[in-house]
Design a protein that fits this description.
alpha+beta; 3 strands; coiled coil; Cell_div_ZapA-like_sf
């Protein structure tokens, strides 16, 4: 990644340079996103060596989106499980308080 004007970073993806303005304080997130995309592209290229250009980019992006959806589903399941645990704990505490009165 190259540094351009204030807040603007130049990211090279598949040999093309893209000037992207990162919000203040989000430069590292932009760098991390570019590295993640490059890793996804390299992984997709290893699996499908004949893909090039837009087709490679779209498949890599679809794979990243699929991973994101899976993580969101897992996150929701974990949140639901934690909410159940908190609710059960609150219920036990409420019962204990009720019994001590």
């Amino acid at each position: 990644m190259k540094h351009g004007a204030e807040g603007v970073k130049v990211v090279s993806i598949l040999g093309e340079d893209y000037s992207i303005k990162a919000p203040a304080g989000e430069e590292q997130t932009l760098l991390d996103a570019a590295l993640m995309l490059k890793a996804a592209l390299a992984d997709t290229k290893r699996k499908y060596p004949t893909l090039i250009g837009d087709r490679l980019l779209v498949l890599a992006a679809m794979n990243l989106c699929s991973q994101q959806i899976d993580m969101q589903k897992r996150h929701k399941q974990e949140l639901d499980r934690y909410q159940e645990q908190v609710s059960a704990t609150v219920q036990v505490i409420s019962q204990a308080i009720g019994q001590s009165n």
